[in-house]
Input
Amino acid sequence: AGLTGIIGAFFLKRRIDKIFAVEKKNAEHSEELRTFKNRQKRRSEAVLANEEAMRLLQKQREKLAKNADQHKTKIETLDKEIEERQQLQEKLMEDPDTILSTSGQKGQERVAQSNTIETDPPQFPLRHETDKEFPSFELLGHRLTEVK
Output
């Protein structure tokens, strides 16, 4: 049974690799497909990283649970973090775009806005030459006298 499973897994992996190769080739020419593939990849990486983090947190919690009285606060903190990571995992599986694309989209929006926002010209001091011996400058409505 073990050999059959290994051979089956090998052929399954080959078929999946062929499918992904076709998608990759098509993605080279299609921006929409490239975006889709990138989103899938980011979601997969995020889900796997989150699962690994939850596993490590659970392992740490189990070690601390041996002396639960001493580590009560740490255990409660770990429980809360594990719970939050489970919620994140559910959100990643339901709608990864809201979590994964938000920062990238916000960055693009900021870049777009920075190109369209009109800024005030810099406030340089205005020089008044009325008194040659003690010239003065005006900066933001205040007159400053230069003393030599």
In short: Residues 124-148 form one domain.
